[in-house]
Amino acid sequence: MxxxxxxxxxSPISGVWDEMYGQNALVRDHYRKVIEYISGESADDLxxxxxxxxxxxxxQGITFTVYNSGEGIExxxxxxxxxxxxxxDEWAFVEKGIKQRLTALNLxxxxxxxxxxxxxxxxxxxxxxxxxxxxxxxxxxxxxxxDIYVHISGIDLIRDHDGxxxxxxxxxxxxSGVSYMLENREITKRLFxxxxxxxxxxxxxxxxxxxxxxxxxxxxxxxxxxxxxxLTPGIYNSAYFEHTTxxxxxxxxxxxxxxxxxxxHKVYMKTTTGLQQVDVIYRRVDDxxxxxxxxxxxxxxxxxxxxxxxxKGNVAIVNAIGTGVADDKAVYVYVPDMIxxxxxxxxxxxxxxxxxxxxxxxxxxxxxxxxxxxxxKTNGSGGYGMLMGHAATxxxxxxxxxxxxxxxxxxxxxxxISLSAAPxxxxxxxxxxxxxxRPYALYGPSGIEIVPGGLTRVALKEGSLVVNSSxxxxxxxxxxxx
Length: 482
Fold this sequence. Notes:
alpha+beta; 23% strand; Dna Ligase, domain 1; Circularly permuted ATP-grasp superfamily protein; 5-stranded mixed beta sheet; CP_ATPgrasp_2; 482 residues; Rossmann fold
């Protein structure tokens, strides 16, 4: 195989699973065709491809919003041109594990809002559930269509030093990022048009079609053409680009709370020809802002009376209200037990070992080993409010401990997992950078479907383990080989 300057200089990180290089610095088979192709390209060609990708992202408005950077609100989403490649066998394993996990999480949500057997049997402690801000008593004994609570999920996976997949967290409320998965693939088709078919890469473009089919099936009215809307908080939301993209790809109306009204327990959309009844709402607004009459009375994002229409079964809401109790990081600890309890199976995908800081013994152990720990808020997201013990100063650690002691239930700790590395094109050279993977699963009346791929997020800063776009991370296209 032709070697090139890019690969001569590539040095895998010691003690870290490298997605491209196996043992003895031998290239893994599934990366060979990509390496051969890139080896034949000059640095000038690759720089032009990188520049083209940036221009395409900018011209198509593929951006995200950073609220605290003080640099204006929208930023281009950093994209690395070298794809992350996953074999068919690896993907089959991941897919099976995610389906098992989601089945159990849905059964848990149905149980916890109805009979609460899992609490009565002592599998999940009652105080963990009742102290969760996303456990909504308003959902108690409310029947949801087909008993599906989590229609859309993004399960974050990482690989440890030996290549084992672990679930880092479950995103079950309003998971984001799927538009970047779709756009990354479109950009890659422009950059490497011959390479995708040559490598037998499976398609991700069916996602909007599957989602639309599932939304149609949830309509409470048995009519030919139910009205589906995507409810967005508006242009200042960090994922607004995604809301517009998905509405366009599915051919549904993009609405804000002020575009909807509830009358006689039915939801209507205001149109130029009068009110039109809405059957299904794919909401990207958090629970607490959905209905000012029930939740936050100051909310301008929701629709007054929406919960009443939902309770009467006159409108379907995706994901169901109250799903956040299943992605609370304190509840995450119990997901393997849920799988054993509801399915009588051993978990296929492992959890990262996790300590709950509400438990005094575990807290003492974590504080003693804090330099090897990552501490997170149980309901935080976007990489905010984390402490990376290995990279923090003494003062940061002491301040964080005081923060934890104010409300220990709101924090968990996990050992620093090394995160696998994949090659990235950085200033004319290939360098290893840490990655994670968020596959997207769609749960409809006919079962769970997962498009073969997902969003690979990359920690672009050297030595960093934080992949969130809000913290300087980027993404790359994810290829699943047939």
